[in-house]
Amino acid sequence: MPAEGSDNRPSPAPPPANGHTNIPDRQLAPGPPPLPNPSTGSANPSASLHALWGYLHPALDHIVRAPTNNPSKAPAIDVSYHMGVHTAVYNYFTSQSDSSPAPTGLAGFPSRFSVQNDKGKASGADLYEQLDRYYADVAREIFLGAPADDSSLIHYLVPCFNRYSAGTQSVSRLLNYVNRHYVKRAIDEDRGWLRLADVLDAVARTIREDDTREKVQKRLRERRTEELKKWGYREGDPPARVAQIESYAEAASAPDRVVSLTAVAYRQFRIEVIEPLLAAPKLKASKGGKKKRPPPTNSDKPPLPRGRLARAVKELLESKGGDEEETRRLAGELAIALRTVGIKVDHPLRKKLDKYIPPEQR
Prior knowledge:
The chain is mainly alpha-helical. It has 12 helices and 2 strands, in the order ααββαααααααααα.
């Protein structure tokens, strides 16, 4: 039975990130030097969100956006900068907590099922939302930089995702206090990826009038397990595997759900990059208001898939004369990327690509 959200939950392992090359990491050219701690003078970086963001932003850009020869490893920041970020975030959250209202619990349920006071947001909500917008901007840049040629799309997308993933994993470690303080609290207040309202109807049908609160909670946990099984959970899975599976469900959640920082980043990659590439182009309307259909062809070949990513996958897998090992690697890493950002198992592309994932990573 998987344990519910906890600040001690093992971090999900990042997807493999070898980018465009099979050269071992030790043979790659060194990345950029660690970013030094910027001088703040007498200014207090934890005095306001504006001040804190001004202090954090260069570190985020260096970790997530800076060019590097090794997409599997994010560029580092100086140790003093790392400690400065920890201190600034901690002080900012502490100053907010003093005036933050306590959540109101729902009668008959544990504290995790509570209602957020409308008079103010929880401590750290503004920083969390700023990070969400930041990842949306980064993902949108990746989408806008995609090549127009379908044959080059996957060769562009896989290393871009690997670089993005390495950066977001590093940022999550840097800002772990956000996960521990804000995200965990939000989950306890029933604002996470799976909420009481999502499962209450199904659970209510199995509840009897004489059931104790413990029995009700047990049925809620069972319902949560059923949801995780949709993402590959099996009874007896180790905690690290459960954390990995839950991260897929978090990334697949709606934008209003509070999830871990890595899942926030993957969710934005899905929304800003993958979903537009999966979408079929809209048919143009004729003068009479009716949508024009593409002209029929006399070819015996089946019509190409409408979505750009589906067309690119078809071209990758059906191309002849290329490096078969490289094709399988790209297909497998794309499958891992789709899984990581929350594309569901039953999606046609997942069905086509999942078989290329190496057995040890399934």
